[in-house]
Structure formats: structure tokens, C-alpha cells
Amino acid sequence: MSEHSYDVVVIGAGPVGENAAGYAVDAGLSAALVEAELLGGECSYWACIPSKALLRTPQAVADARRLPGVTAEFDVQQVLDRRTSFTSGWDDSGQVAWAEGAGAAVLRGRGRLAGEKRVVVTADDGTETVVTANRAVVVATGSVPVVPPVEGLDTVEYWGSREATSATEVSARLGVLGGGVVGCEMALAHARLGARVTLLHHGDRVLPSAEPQASERVADGLREAGVDLRLSTGVDRVSRSGDATLLHLGEETVEVDRLLVATGRRPATDGLDLASVGVTTGRRGEIVVDESGLAAGDWLYAVGDVNGRAPLTHQGKYQARIAAHAIAARAAGRALQDGAWGEDAATADHRAVTQVVFTDPEVAWVGLTTAAARRAGRDVRVVDIDIAVAGSSLTADGWSGRVVAVVDPEREVLLGATFVGPGVAELLHAATVAVVGEVPLARLWHAVPAFPTISEVWLRVLESYRA
Fold first, then answer.
1. Full residue range of the structural domain in which residue 23 is found
2. Cis amide bond preceding 440, omega within 30
3. Is 425 helix (H, G, I), strand (E, B) or coil?
4. 31-35 and 104-108: which strand pairing?
5. Phi and psi for 287 in degrees, rounded to 5?
6. Which of 244, 263, 282 is a domain's end point?
7. What are the residue boundaries of the FAD/NAD(P)-binding domain, all occurrences included (predicted)?
8. Mean local confidence (pLDDT), 97-107
9. Structural contact between residues 366 and 354, judged by C-beta atoms closer than 8 angstroms
10. How confident is the model at residue 1 (pLDDT cuts 50, 70, 90)?
11. What does the DSSP 8-state code read for residue 287?
């Protein structure tokens, strides 16, 4: 058994872990990345990147067709090939070269805790390496799919998000369980690539954490794309008949060639041996952390999906920056800047989480939704209007969108904003700056939107609030 030591040992080398190691090295600390699969993690190979690659070309064609005089088509195989190019053919040698070039050591194998500041790395061949962290261990193991308790599901082959984004051919009939982000995006992608898609969701609306107006428009968009959307519908059981999978819905049976189970994810803490360092997880299985990402003692941190705070790649990378800065500060004996919006506090996880759903229409939001604000006991005013400005009319015939702005009327600052419409993801960062900066609405009057752009909707929001 060999032994090594580094200032910082990061378990999990997805984008979040890579960020933690990279910022630690930038701060003058030595760092090692421990990874059992591909460096770059879920986001690079099976989630954010390949899913958006599958969606992008069909979306560009759909957008083009909304302009008069344009005829456009796409080649399905070229879409699949472009997706594969973004994953480098599921080869992580480029990511390894980046990590080593950035000064981080790469240790292949599955990491588990073995006492304070000690990690055991078990390689595929069973060889074990003990790694000691002089300063900190950072857990960045992400999340894993949740499998619903559906009778017969364990007797059939089914897809998770990995199989849906890495498919090398399009199934004729695809069933999707779950109307969250993955379910909606993959239903749209595969429908546009030629599959006949049936999406089953037990709730009464897709994207249940979004504003209801957004959910309704996404549902309409899925139906327009040819998805057979079944809301308030559960699966009683699943069975196999020849090459087909049968979904039993009461008296009805739906036959599909492939079944995608997209019913959520949970923090990936299995096999970490957290008990060896006295750490227990929260009610959702998450590692509970403070604002700097610290989970236990002065040395164990958890960032990204595994801590359950804001399970999104960009929020995890944000947490990793904060944790690496805090590790470096504590190593140097410096006081943390952990007040509101301080460098060592993940305040955005509470106030300004951003998210985009790349459906058609897109949904983009930051901060609090109306329901979340009211659950928190906030007294709010809501501006809920159509996005109908010169810029949207010029973008496409029949362009339709909506904005919901949640305002604190006492301070007259924006607490949250949701946009739904074609291409609205690019509107989001302006709203994020307004929420994070707590920019008074009176000052936003002087942020003049250019004409003719869709951003003119900001002026309509302010006018509606004052009306």
C-alpha cells in the first residue's frame, strides 16, 4: 500500500471538484483529484454538455422555421456526431492533461474517508493508496439518480440520463418517467430527433419548482413538438413483452422501445465512510455544510450536489471557489470574509440561485419564485406580464414570452425573476446582477435598454410596477 500527501485532497473530479483543486493550486497549495470514472464528471459527459448539444441543432431549425421564407432541416446523425465531439468520445485524456497542467495530481480510483484527513483510494485492480491531506479533504462526488418504487422496474432494462444523452441511435418509441428538467429536456430532444415520446408525470404540472406560467408554456411546447404529455399520471407497474417495455397505467398499457427514468437525483455519499469521521447526513442524504462549505472539524468540506444546497453545476463551481478560498485563508491563519456576500460565504445559494431549462420555450430564473417567497413569509408584489416588445416581434413571427418579477415592496428591490420564451436564457444575467446587487428599482429606471431588443421588457416591468 503506497502513501502520498497533499495539502488538499478532492474526492470527485467533475467540474466542481476540478474547480476546488484548481483554485487551491492557484492559492499556492498542492492538490490531488481522486476520480473513479471520467475526469470532467457527469456534466461533461452525460448531462449538461451532451444534452444541450442534442437540443441545440433542432432548436436552431425550429427558430429558423418561425421566420417567413425560411425552410430548414437537419441531419440526425450529424446531431449525434456533434454531441459525441463535445464529450471527446467519452475520453477524458484532455481533462487529465488540463488537471496535470494546472498542477493537480490525478489519482484513479474510488475514494473513501479513513479517519481525519486521510483518504483511501481503491483502484479498479483493488490496489489501495492512502492519501493524507495536510489541510483539507473536499468531497465533490455529485449526485446519483433516484429510482422510483415501481413494480417490475427492476425486471426490465431502462435508461437513466446517461443513456439518454449518450444514445447512438434514436428509438422509435420512448417513454419518459418524470417531468422535471431532465425529463422535459430529453423528451423534447428525442421527439425532435424522431422518436414518438410519451412523458408521464405524477404531478399536475411539469417543472414544479418553476413559476406556474412557465410550467404551462413548457407543457404546451412539448405537446407542439409531438410529445404525448400525461400529467397527474403514475405507472402502476412495468413489464417486458419481447423487445418492448410495457407501461401499465390502470386500464391502459403504453408500449415503448426504451424507457427513460428521470425521477430526480440524490447526493452521492455511498461508500464514502462518513461515519469514520463522525459525519451524519441530512434528511435528503446530503452532507450538511456551513457557508464556507465546511462539514466537520477544520478540514472536511463538501461542495456541489453532495451537500444538497443548490444541485446545479454552476452553483457547485461557485461553492468550490468559496471553499478553496476558505481553505487557503484558514491555512494562512487569515480571518474569513464570511459576512453577507463575503468572499467566503455561499450567500447566492440562499438568495440568487440561477437556473435555465433548455426546452422550447426556454425557462430561466434567478432568486425567489412567487411561491417560494410567500412560503418564506415574505410580503411581495408580483409583476406578471407578457414579453411583447419590438425586439421580440422582430425575432420571430408569433414570438411569445412571459416575465414574472418578484419585488420586495418595502425596499423596492428585486427578489427574483423568471423568464419564459424562446432564447430567454440570455436575459437571465441582467436579472441576476439586479438580484445580487439589490439594485433599487428607481435606479433601474436609468439602465436604458437598447432598441430594438427583447431586453426592453425591463422597461415594461418597471412601468407595470409603478402603474
1. 2-40+92-144+266-331
2. no
3. helix
4. parallel
5. -85, 120
6. 263
7. 6-317
8. 96
9. yes
10. low
11. P
